[in-house]
Amino acid sequence: MHEWALAESVIRKAAEYAAREKLSSVSEVGVSLGELQAIDRKIFSFALQELVKSSFKGLSCCKFRILKDPAAFKCKACSKEFTLKVLKRTDEEAENIHFIPEMAHAFLKCPKCKSPDFEIMAGRGVSIKHIRGGR
Ligand SMILES: [Zn+2]
After folding, report:
1. 69: CA distance to ligand 1 center in Å?
2. What is the per-residue pLDDT for 31?
3. Which of these CATH numbers, 3.30.70.100, 3.30.2320.50, 3.20.20.80, 3.40.50.720, describes 2-69+123-134?
4. Fewest Cβ atoms closer than 10 Å to its Cβ: which of 8, 53, 64, 103?
5. What pLDDT does residue 109 have?
6. How far apart (Å, rounded) are the C-alpha atoms in residues 32 and 96?
7. 124: CA distance to ligand 1 center in Å?
């Protein structure tokens, strides 16, 4: 599963960070999850909790805080920046966009000039936002 592979890479990065910073224990890892990232948050969270048990021992008691990274777009024609929230769309469209970020281009257009040519500025991918721990 995609969620398990992503969870594994998050834990690997957190363990590397803890080793580099010489942390003996990690209490919390903040993980930013892109709004457009096609993963199931519940499965991802479960995968993190399961995988961390057999990981670097300093991480074994840590909590994962999953933070939502909202999607943001910028129109290439007029430079208007916009989000999914400002656009009134049907639930079905929203569902498709969550599943395949590339679909955003098929459904969205600039709210100002109606150009379908925009960049995805934020809301993709998974990254570590913060790590809290002690030496
Ligand atoms: Zn525009």
Report:
1. 23
2. 95
3. 3.30.2320.50
4. 53
5. 86
6. 21
7. 21
